[in-house]
Every structure is written in C-alpha cells, then in structure tokens.
Amino acid sequence: MSSSTTVQRKVRRVKRKRKKQAHPVLKFVGGVFQNAAGTVIGTTMIASAIAAGGLVGLAVSFRNLPDVRTLRGYVPTETSYIYDINGTLLLSLHGEANRTNVDLENVSPHLKMAVIAIEDSHFYQHKGINPTSVGRAMLSNYEEGAIVEGASTITMQLVKNLFLAQDRTYNRKLAETVLALRIEQIFPKAEILEMYLNNIYWGHNNYGVQTAAESYFNKKADELTLAESAVMAGMIQAPEEYSPFRDYQSTKQRQRMVLNRMRDLGWITSEEAETAYKEPLLVGQPTAWKSSASPYITQAVVEELKQRFGEELVQKGGMRVQTTVDVNFQRQAEETVRKAFRRAQNRGLRADQVALAAVDPRTHFVKALVGGTSYENSQFNRATQSKRQPGSSFKPFVYYAAFASGRYSPYTTIQDTPVKYKDGTKWYEPQNYGGGFSGTVSLFDALKSSKNVPAVKLGKSIGLDRVIEVSQLLGIESELQPVVSLPLGAVGISPLEMAGAYATFASNGWQSDTTLILRVTDSQGNVLLDNTPDPKLVLDPWATASLTSILQGVIDSGTGKRAKLGGRPAAGKTGTTSSERDVWFVGYTPQMSAAVWVGNDDYRPMGKGVTGGTHAAPIWQAFMQDALKNEKPQYFPAASKYDRPSP
User: What's the gap between Cα 6 and its chain centre?
Assistant: First the structure.
C-alpha cells in the first residue's frame, strides 16, 4: 500500500471519528463556523450561495482561462547535476528555480501528513474548494473591506503557482477557484499533491520537496522524520521567515504549531508531538548556489552541454551528467602542477600561468584539466580555451605522416642545410633553435634533437595538406593553414587538443572521441548522450610505433630528458616558440597522455634559455609520476611487429 493511500485513509478515519466533535483550531462547531466576534454563518448556506450563482457566472466569465489539461504533460523545470565518474556531485545547474522532481511515493508520509494538516486538512474531502474556509475568508474580508485572508486549498495554491499572478485580488481568487475545480475533475488527489510538493517554494532558492530536504537536512525527501517534516510544512506560509538558516527560534515555534495541529486533528498522539518537538534538528546548509567542487572541469562540461543541448535544457532540464574525471585525482593534479610550477618560478621562470590536460589513451576519457594557477583569480580555462602555438611539439604529426606514406623510416636521412621558401609575397628561411646546421641526419636524430629545418623540409615533401589531414584525424579542431612554417607549430592549439592527439599515438593508433562527458540522462534515467568508448584504428600501427620509438629517444637522450619517469617507458616532445612566449611538453605512456603549457597571458617573453625541456618537462614529470604511482609500467609495441606501409 502506498504511503499516500495510508495518509488518506488515516485522515478519513479520523474525520469520521471526529465528525461531531469540536474543531479546536478552526472553531468549527456543530456544522457552523463562529468568528472571534461571535458571528455565526452556516457553512451549508455559504456553499449553497456559491453553487447557486457564483460559479455558474464564473464558468462563463473565465472561459478563457488556461486549459488545465496541459498539466498532463507538465514537468516543472529541474536542476541539472554534474557528477564525477564515481558519482560525487561537482555542480548543480539551474536558473531561478533550484528543483529536483520526485514521485509522491518517494516523499515521507510524515511530510505529506504535516503539509495537509497545516495547509488543507480537508484535502481528501473537498473537490478543489473548501466551503468552510471560503466562508471564513469572506467574513474576514467583508469586515476589513479588503482581502486580508485567503481560503486557498492545496489545489488552489497549485493553480496560483502554475497559472496565475500572485496579487491578492478578487478576480484572481475567482479564477483560482474555477481552475481548482477543473483540476479536481481531471486529476486524482495523488497527482495534485505530487505536483504541489514539487512546485512549492521552500526558501533560499529551493523549489520542491526534494531539493528543500537536501538543503535543510542533508537527506532525501523520503527520509524526513516527523520533526523535520513539521519544520518544512511550517515553512510553506513564509519560507524565509521560518527558515532554520535565518531564525532557529522562529523555526521551532512554527514547528510546534504544525505538530499541535496534527495532534488536534488526531493524526499523531500528544506523545509523538512532544517527542518530535524535543528532537534536535541537524540543519544542513544552503545548496542552491554552491560553487563547483572542480571548476575547471565543470566549466568545460557546461560549455559542451550548451553546444549540444542548448542553454535552456542545461539550466532547467534536470540533466544528470556523469563526467570522466575522478574529483580526487583532479584535485591532486591541480596541487601537483601548482607545486611544480612554483618550483620553476623559483628557478627564475618569468611566467604567470600554467595549463595541463590529461587523457587516458585506453578510453580517450579526459582525466584532468588544470586551466591555470588559480580559478578564483581567473576563470579563463587555458587547458581548453587558450590557443597557443605548440612549437616543436607539433612536429610528431609531420613525422607520422611521413612514416605512414611508406616513403620514410626513422633511419631515412635528410639534409639539415639552409633552405629558403616563397611564402606568399615573402621569403621564409627556417632556422634551427640556437642556430647552425648538422648536414645529413636521420629522421630519428632530427626529431630527437628537435631540428627545425628537417621538419620544414619533410612537411613540404609529404605535403602540408596531408599534415593538416593527419592533425584533424587526431582530433585537432583548431584552424590549420598550409603555411610553410606549419611543421614548427605556427598555429594556435589548446592543451586538451594536444593531449587527445598524443593519446592516439599512445594507443598505437586506436582512437575514440576525446571527451569529458561519459553519460547524460534526464531525471527519469532516459539516456540523452552515451560516450562509451568505441575505439577505431585510425593510424598505421607501424608508422605509429616508429614515431613512438623516436619520442622515447627524446626523453631518454634528447631535449626532454627532464621528463624521465625512472624505469617506466615514456615518449614525448618538447615545444618552444620564438621569443620564448610559449613552452610545452606533450608526452605519454600506454596509460596516460598529458600536455603541459607554460607562458604569460599577455604573450610576454619568458626570457632567454627558457625551453619546453627545461621548464615544461619537469611539470609533466611531476604530474605523471603522481598520476601513475598505482599503475604498473607498461611497454610500447615495437615497430617490427607490424608490416611497413607501401609507398
């Protein structure tokens, strides 16, 4: 038997028992209502007067009122929630109304009883209006010459909240009456009560019983005790005035009034009322505008959700969003990166910002985003929103394209000699970092030591359009132009794009869409978005393994030696732009790919001698050592396992 049926039967049983007894609160004696001055009005006469003329006229006068049948498909706006991969709440999203809808069966019987007792004790007997309450209100308003007292049933309050303005006028009250009668003709009491409980404003931006219960008592609506239920029922009349967050004594006084009302109705005993009143209230804290537990993550998630679903649905659609990030891992990543960055600054680095993005190559799930040194000081997420030149960390895209063409291997030689290209109306003459040329070099050595001239020559040889095609295949969405300097990273790319692209190298060519969002459902559990990995082989295995072997050399004995992970195999590439405005290290193991960028928001140079190998690589190393401390080392596949592609 449902809890609502139990409450309804209890109310009816007590009503039958007390039918001829005095009503201590409403002064309802012998079928008549007596006001404070002793005036007696027969409720039967009031009901007859209303039925005989008033409502007939109202039905005509208000024939243009809203069609209450639209409530059959009505779903109140709901708060959306973003969780980490383990279900920890990161952020709630809502407009004005912070609300989580709940079925009536998932509301505590104590709360249903308390609300009905204090708001509309005849709820299960009337058909939308209560003639006794109407008579009392009419008398008070007549005596005062204005509307000073309402006669609203729960159904009428629901009408007011959903359809009508909040002004206290006769026209509004008459419309409220007609619509309440219409609703009672169409909807059963259980549905009316459910809609009512999900629409009530409970103060502090809490709409609906579920959100209010979580805010005030840190529990679900079906877990509320009698004491807590009496507090919440008492708040409906003036939620801010009776809020336990504002005035605990007023809250207790109002709670006592509700408990006494329930006792007088015979729905609880005097002992139950007294025990509930003495029960201490373990009050929570406002939840409506709490800040994100992981702002860099939730900021990026919200932006993606808005692009996919639109802001209206994100703010009011009751979405349940499961991200790919473990909040504890994210916090540790932020702390590790900040500490390593401060160490770099202590060694003379003149930079004010750092960003990191980390992706699991096995799933392409984003595992960490560090968008800057302090979210409080700057909400700009440099891991996702900043487009900075990656410098030489872009070169692996060129080398992979060369190997995949079948015309090159790591031991193919190339001339590191002066060269000049016509680039539009100007001539472009690439230079190596630090100047000088090495003559004939293998591609292995050219990439390991980050030679610029061979990279530019290789890009021209295989075709810059092919380099762009490979980059886009790997998930680079930033605009790329086939300029001669493209192989040197002369284009803006975000750290997340770089980490996602390198993750495909780490998986030896297998790729799923890089994502921060694992799954999105509505509040009923219907799946709106499912990003379960669906890996596809998008790169040539031999070419990828060949590239990885060189990038391992970068860390073992090349420009990225400060990124070494001890006995754990790792591959990566440094990046340093002209005038030292941006320095990078992007690298991977089979279990994690990460990109680190260091620089200044205003593009100030960081000074001579600042490189990706000297300042970004140690930050990457610190992050990876901490991130993989519980993972056993894994090894990359050798290129010899695969057939070399044909030219």
Answer: 38
